[in-house]
């Protein structure tokens, strides 16, 4: 069978500023929470490799864009680093950053690759974090000013903007499950941080629309479809609905519909955790400023069952309301430890079609992390990642099916282009179409999947 995609389908990949650019003497970049945390507690980072050791996109972007073109990209997503553009989070703009981002954008466009620009990928400027980060309502104002600066500087050429990447991950990592700075466990803080991100996103959207720019703005969410162990068991079902409300609909509903899931609101009321910022005025801003399009990151599903014991945790936590379970016979990515469930991508798209007014969307991340990927290198130094080609194809078949059934999905971005540094996992899991040799000045080599992607993009499909 041949799978042909709609005309002008977006083929490309996604990355982020903090994971690729690097920091260099004299570049004027300020510190963000990752730079700070690494200096303070390098033991949190795999092999003690920190954000200073990236693939050096700051210096190598011209070569990288040429490689993107060589592997068939017509679009590419990265993020502006807030702490590069406005080193203190508020105030003066760094002229070297303006020059750098202008060059990146212009180089992409000159090579026929449309830039998709995200404004926030987990990278709070440290001077703002010191005052509370997303806990502080003033951070929302600072973010909106930063967003407005970006629209003004680059909005004449950038037509696709995103306010956040995976905002729930900042909540989970920083305030619930301890894998982002400030590494707390505090549900009240988690709720406030999440609310402020949602408000910041809505206010940035408001600003963008008010500026009458020629383009559109959305948000990128990691949607992890929630499947109950036994769909005919009402307790399992309820557990799954609540997990979905906490981890998907908490951001999806306000972003697309301007409302909050009632199940979540009821729980927060019961726990007396409704954030102070949820004033009538802010509720209205969120209601009125929804996204133009949606990026969907999909890696793995969430398998949920009813809570087995009544024992709650000491502090309230989302997982007081459900338990996880392992699906017997599940398919695993043997190199990363995540479940592979290709149909999940279809379920998300159909859910958006049926329950979110078929919002225009694209797959903004999907991909396969591989630990120890050098073992798949052939004699020419090329990584033969047939498993990645199979992974992408298996997901694309479901994307194709969703399109046949009316989904408004418009593109597919794999995570990621060049192997990159990834938060506390650093270089443990490699995801790219292109390998990066850290021992040889970041030397790039196109993997087998990169060559395959070129054929896919040229043919606008595969068989
Ligand atoms: C996504 C993030 C990316 C990237 C990816 C892979 O959730 O948006 O920034 O980190 O996950 O993650 P990891 O390297 O931990 O496997």
TrEMBL record:
Pfam families: Glyco_hydro_1. The keyword DNA repair does not apply. The active site is at 365 (nucleophile). One of its GO terms (biological process) is carbohydrate catabolic process. The keyword Hydrolase applies. GO terms for molecular function: 6-phospho-beta-glucosidase activity. PROSITE patterns: GLYCOSYL_HYDROL_F1_1. InterPro entries: GH, Glyco_hydro_1, Glyco_hydro_1_AS. Its EC number is 3.2.1.86. It is an enzyme of class 3 (hydrolase). Signal peptide: none annotated. Keywords: Glycosidase, Hydrolase. One of its GO terms (cellular component) is cytosol. Belongs to the glycosyl hydrolase 1 family. This is 6-phospho-beta-glucosidase. The lineage of its organism: Bacteria, Bacillati, Bacillota, Clostridia, Eubacteriales.
């Amino acid at each position: 069978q041949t799978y042909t995609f709609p005309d002008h389908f977006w083929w490309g990949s996604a990355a982020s500023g903090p994971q690729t650019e690097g920091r260099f003497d004299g570049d004027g970049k300020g510190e963000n929470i990752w730079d700070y945390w690494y200096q303070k507690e390098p033991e949190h980072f795999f092999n003690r490799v920190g954000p200073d050791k990236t693939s050096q996109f700051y210096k190598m972007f011209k070569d990288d864009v040429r490689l993107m073109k060589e592997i068939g990209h017509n679009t590419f997503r990265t993020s502006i680093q807030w702490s590069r553009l406005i080193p203190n989070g508020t105030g003066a703009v760094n002229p070297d950053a303006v020059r750098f981002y202008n060059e990146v954008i212009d180089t992409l466009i000159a090579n026929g690759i449309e830039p998709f620009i995200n404004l926030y990928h987990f990278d709070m400027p440290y001077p703002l974090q010191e005052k509370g980060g997303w806990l502080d309502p003033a951070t929302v104002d600072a973010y909106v000013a930063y967003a407005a600066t970006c629209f003004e500087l680059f909005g004449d050429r950038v037509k696709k903007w995103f306010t956040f990447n995976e905002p729930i991950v900042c909540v989970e990592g920083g305030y619930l499950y301890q894998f982002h700075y400030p590494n707390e466990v505090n549900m009240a803080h988690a709720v406030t941080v999440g609310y402020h991100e949602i408000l910041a996103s809505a206010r940035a959207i408001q600003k963008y629309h008010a500026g009458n720019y020629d383009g559109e703005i959305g948000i990128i969410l990691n949607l992890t479809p929630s499947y109950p162990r036994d769909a005919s068991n009402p307790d399992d079902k309820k557990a799954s609905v609540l997990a979905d409300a906490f981890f998907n609909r908490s951001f999806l509903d306000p972003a697309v519909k301007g409302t909050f899931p009632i199940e979540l609101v009821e729980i927060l009321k019961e726990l007396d955790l409704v954030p102070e910022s949820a004033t009538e005025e802010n509720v209205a801003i969120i209601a009125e400023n929804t996204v133009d399009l949606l990026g969907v990151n999909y890696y793995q599903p969430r398998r949920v069952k009813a809570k087995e014991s009544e024992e709650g945790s000491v502090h309230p936590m989302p997982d007081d309301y459900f338990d996880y379970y392992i699906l017997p016979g599940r398919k695993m990515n043997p190199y990363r430890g995540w479940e592979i469930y290709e149909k999940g991508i279809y379920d998300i798209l159909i859910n958006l079609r049926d329950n979110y007014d078929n919002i225009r969307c694209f797959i903004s991340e999907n991909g396969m992390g591989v630990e120890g990927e050098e073992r798949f290198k052939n004699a020419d130094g090329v990584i033969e990642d047939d498993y990645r080609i199979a992974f992408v194809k298996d997901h694309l078949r479901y994307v194709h099916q969703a399109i046949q059934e009316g989904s408004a999905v418009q593109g597919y971005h794999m995570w990621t282009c060049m192997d990159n540094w990834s938060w506390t996992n650093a270089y443990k899991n490699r995801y790219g179409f292109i390998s990066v040799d850290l021992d040889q000045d970041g030397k790039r080599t196109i993997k087998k999947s990169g060559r395959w992607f070129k054929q896919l993009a040229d043919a606008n499909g595969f068989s």
